[in-house]
Amino acid sequence: MAEIIKSRKPVSINPLKSSTPLGAALGYLGIEGAVPLLHGSQGCTSFALVLLVRHYKEAIPLQTTAMDEVATILGAAGNMEEALLNLQRRMKPRFIGIASTALVETRGEDYAGDLKLILARQPELADTSVVFASTPDYIGALEDGWAAAVSAVIDGVVAPWSPAVTSFQQVNVLPGVNQTPADIEYLRDLIESFGLYPVILPDLSGSLDGHIAEDWCATTQGGARLEEVAQMARAVHTIAIGEHMRQPADLLCSLTGVPVTVFSTLTGLAPNDRLLSLLSHISGRAVPGRYRRQRSQLLDAMLDGHFHFGGKRIAIAADPDLLFSLSQFFTSMGAKIVAAVASTANSPNLAQIPTERVIIGDLTDMEDAVRAAGGADLLVTHSHGRQSARRLGIPLLRVGFPIFDRLGTAHMHTVGYCGTRDLIFRVANLFMGQMHEHKPDDFAPARPAPFNEEIVHDSASLAAH
Predict the structure, then answer these.
(1) Averaged pLDDT, 336-358
(2) How far apart (Å, rounded) are the C-alpha atoms in residues 442 and 296?
(3) Any coiled-coil ranges, and where (predicted)?
């Protein structure tokens, strides 16, 4: 069991984590016709918007209540009401997801009560679903904000269970913030191959998958449909991915009575075996042949790749669930985790990470841990770790959020048999690319051995005897 160590530095020098409101905004972007609204100053929203645009290379409809000095002192209920009315008149969203920031939370406003009063006295908002998630910047990180947003949607949109509406073909899926649009698309295809109908919340595969729409739209295009989200009680089972999704899954279970299975990770052989076994049990169908072949391909990739993973020293800095997933993957391939840094301590899985210590800190803590461990062969973190990798003199595998110096991030996937297989090849090729290639100049030309009279004399003497 790993020892959890919290950094005592008074300031974060090279931050690892992204803010909680940013995670909530990202979750809201997985709903069709949505506009995320950050309740705070313009600066908070600008920071989140820049990271989202650079990561996805897409237009992001992120808005703000634009609190100023007066609203900070006297209260910002008026800013929230004005923002909601402006969004409804100008953008016509079907869904508005509000996330609080540290400015609002520190002041201690009754934002939930303010929202109820606003919705009661503004008939213009009657046809718009509006939810509010408490996401102060100083608590948690990206995973916590995502989970809070999903919980707010479940609490505000999902209808309670009724015995008259049950579908034995519907399966609810609550993906974690670490699943890319390609991951979610793969899960949809997988579930549909068993004859089941997936309802995914949030669904980034339709809204942030990088496509060119026929017409411009001010809100999100694609994503989870509110009509289907409202009927999640119809499902026969709910699948949640990541420990940070346990709370939303439990909330959905208590509201609808639908049983839940939480997968800590879907990267690796064993987790996907369990997933396919579950889907086969739910549907009553055998596992389709193409997934049996994908499993065989993964086994072959593991055999080919373990030569390059074995004995490698890995340093990982990520959000807790992503850190757990990657550490399990690398150790299963024969590598060793020599440094593990998490953005927050809000996950019980941190104690199960296969290393001696897990540091709750930033990328500077990660650098110090690598040097204390005697070096590493690979650094695994997001794009902000590129300077650390350069200083340490080791290659960087970009994972998580944000990745702004590479293209195709939304289309990279690590779940399922084929996603795990592709991840093995990515890492193995990275290791192979660091190998020294010998050139002719590296080898001294063959020369005859120098003449040694003593050796000749001794050889003649031995021959005479």
Answers:
(1) 94
(2) 41
(3) none
The residues near 438 (Cβ < 8 Å, ≥ 6 apart) are none
- What pLDDT shows up at residue 106? 85
Q: Is 378 helix (H, G, I), strand (E, B) or coil?
A: strand
Greatest C-alpha distance within the chain: 118
Query: Residue 218 in contact with residue 91, Cβ under 8 Å?
Result: yes
The answer to whether 299 and 292 are in contact (CB under 8 A) is: no
Residue 455 in tokens = 């050796």
User: How high is the pLDDT of residue 165?
Assistant: 65
> What are the residue ranges of helices labelled H in 179-268?
181-192, 204-207, 226-230, 246-256
Task: State the Cα–Cα distance between residues 352 and 344, nearest whole angstrom.
Answer: 15
Q: What domains does the chain contain, in order, with CATH numbers?
A: 3-8+295-433 (3.40.50.1980), 20-139 (3.40.50.1980), 170-289 (3.40.50.1980)
- How many helices, marked H, and strands, marked E, lie in the chain? 18, 14
pLDDT digits (tens, 9 = 90+) for 238-289: 999 999 999 999 999 999 999 999 999 999 999 999 999 999 999 999 999 9
DSSP assignment string, 330-363 = HHHTT-EEEEEEES-S--GGGGGSSSSEEEES-H
